[in-house]
Design goal:
The chain is α/β, with parallel strands linked by helices and about 120 residues long. The protein has helices spanning about 20-35, 55-60, 80-95, 100-120, and strands at about 1-5, 10-15, 40-50, 70-75. It has 2 domains: about 1-75, no CATH class; about 80-120. The chain contains 4 helices and 4 strands; from the N terminus they run E-E-H-E-H-E-H-H. It has a 4-stranded mixed sheet, covered by helices on one side. The mean pLDDT is about 75. GO terms for molecular function: FAD binding; proline dehydrogenase activity. This is Proline dehydrogenase.
Length: about 120
């Protein structure tokens, strides 16, 4: 988790950088318990592009007590030789990703349908 002070509010913003659903749900639960009037500012989530997409899409489609949840995806940049070691470590950390593939597919299909309906409106 990263944190920084929100401009002019005196509140601390939190960034949860995790592909783990349980970790993100815990952070959201704690944020709800603290409420919007606490010293905690924005709650933002971040994941590696292509990993935990079902989690990202779920966060984007929901709201936290009327507050939008920002979600960032980051991409690895560099030569293949530079990036492959990093990506292998992330894959090892996220071995449960294979078990989430059905959930990921369902979340992506739901997002596609949502975008198609939005485009027609």
């Amino acid at each position: 988790m990263a944190r920084h002070l929100s401009k002019g509010t005196g509140k601390i913003d939190l960034v949860v950088a995790s592909h783990n659903r349980r970790s993100v749900e815990l952070a959201l639960s704690l944020r709800r318990q603290l409420g919007l009037n606490s010293d905690v500012g924005e709650l933002t989530c971040a994941q590696l592009m292509g990993m935990a997409d079902e989690l990202s899409l779920g966060l984007l489609s929901g709201r936290l007590d009327g507050e939008e949840i920002k979600v960032y995806k980051y991409a690895v940049w560099g030569t293949t030789q530079e990036c492959v070691k990093y990506l292998v470590r992330r894959a090892e950390e996220n071995k449960d990703a294979v078990s989430r593939s059905f959930e990921n597919r369902a979340a992506c299909m739901k997002e596609i349908w949502r975008r198609m309906r939005f485009a027609k409106a």
